[in-house]
Design brief:
The radius of gyration is 18 Å and the shape is globular. The longest helix has 16 residues. Helix 1 packs parallel to helix 5. It has a six-stranded parallel sheet, with helices on both faces. A two-stranded antiparallel sheet has the order 1-2. It is α/β, with parallel strands linked by helices. It is built from 13 helices and eight strands. Keywords: Glycosyltransferase, Transferase. It holds the Pfam family Glyco_tran_WecG. This is WecB/TagA/CpsF family glycosyltransferase.
Length: 261
C-alpha cells in the first residue's frame, strides 16, 4: 500500500487511514498475501527502545499505523504530513473494519483477554456487523513455544484460516507471542490490538470519544485502571519528550533544515 512513511521518535510510522485498514484486509485476502499490521503509541514507543524482542517484531512489520494523538502532534512539530485522520485507535476504527469483513464474508479470529470476554466482544461487534464470521479464544493459556496449549491454539487458527487474526493480550505479551509464532500463523493480516475486546465487551470502560479527540484518552484509562497503568502514563512520556527534543534538534538545528551542512 502506497502511503507516506515517517521516521518519528526513532520508530517508523505509516500515514494510514481507516479506509486504508479496510482495504488492507480486502486486498490481502484477495491476493492471499500475509501482512503484519502493527501500531505505535507512547507505550509501544517506550517498549520498542527497551525490549529487543518487541523491536524485532516491529522491524518485520509490513504496516505500522499511529495509535494516539501525541504521535500525531510530534509529527506535526517535525513538519510531517500526519493529521487527525491518521490517528487510528481500535475503539474507533475496528467496528467499521469489521463491518467491511462481514460484507465481504471475511473470517476473523480474536485471541486474548479473559475467558468469556472474547465471546462477549464478538457478540457486540456482530450487532453492528450482522453476519460477521468470527472465532475466538481467550488469552489465558500457556503461550510458551511448544506447550500443548499453545499448539492447540495454533491448530485452531490454522484450521480456521482467518483473513484477519486480531491479538489482544496486552503489550508486550501479545507482540512476543506473535513474534514466536509468526512463521506458523495462517492468516492474511495479523494485528496487535491490546484491550480491544475488553472495551467491546464492557469489561473495561471505554474512554469518552471527546477525550480521545483531544488526546486525553490516556487520562480516562488511567482513572479506570490506576494500579496497572500508573507506570505507563507517569514514567514513560518523559522518555518520548527526550526523543522528540533529539528529533527537533536534528531537523531544525544548525545542521538541519535551514542550517549549514
Amino acid at each position: 500500500m502506497n502511503v507516506p512513511s515517517y521516521s518519528l521518535l526513532g520508530v517508523r510510522v505509516d500515514a494510514l487511514t481507516e479506509g486504508d485498514l479496510s482495504a488492507l484486509i480486502r486486498e490481502a485476502a484477495a491476493r492471499n498475501e500475509r501482512h503484519l499490521v502493527l501500531n505505535h503509541n507512547l507505550h509501544s514507543l517506550y517498549l520498542y527502545h527497551h525490549d529487543p524482542a518487541f523491536r524485532k517484531l516491529y522491524d518485520r512489520a509490513d504496516h505500522v499505523h499511529v495509535d494516539g494523538m501525541p504521535l500525531v502532534w510530534a509529527g506535526r512539530l517535525l513538519g510531517y504530513g500526519l493529521t487527525r485522520e491518521n490517528r487510528l485507535t481500535s475503539v474507533d476504527w475496528l467496528p467499521h473494519v469489521l463491518k467491511t469483513c462481514a460484507e465481504e464474508g471475511l473470517r476473523v479470529y480474536f485471541l486474548g483477554s479473559e475467558p468469556g470476554v472474547p465471546e462477549g466482544a464478538a457478540a457486540r461487534f456482530r450487532e453492528g456487523a450482522p453476519g460477521l464470521r468470527v472465532e475466538t479464544h481467550h488469552g489465558y493459556f500457556d503461550a510458551a513455544p511448544g506447550s500443548p496449549e499453545n499448539e492447540r491454539v495454533l491448530r485452531e487458527i490454522d484450521e480456521y484460516r482467518p483473513h484477519a487474526l486480531m491479538v489482544g493480550m496486552g503489550m508486550p505479551r501479545q507482540e512476543r507471542w506473535i513474534l514466536e509464532n509468526l512463521d506458523r500463523l495462517q492468516a492474511n493480516t495479523i494485528w496487535n490490538l491490546g484491550a480491544f475486546m475488553d472495551y467491546a465487551a464492557g469489561a473495561v470502560p471505554t474512554p469518552p470519544r471527546w477525550m480521545a479527540r483531544l488526546g486525553l484518552e490516556w487520562l480516562a484509562r488511567f482513572a479506570a485502571e490506576p494500579r496497572r497503568l500508573w507506570r505507563r502514563y507517569l514514567l514513560e512520556p518523559p522518555f518520548a519528550l527526550v526523543l522528540l527534543a533529539r528529533d527537533l534538534a536534528r531537523r531544525y538545528g544548525p545542521r538541519g533544515i535551514g542550517g549549514r551542512s
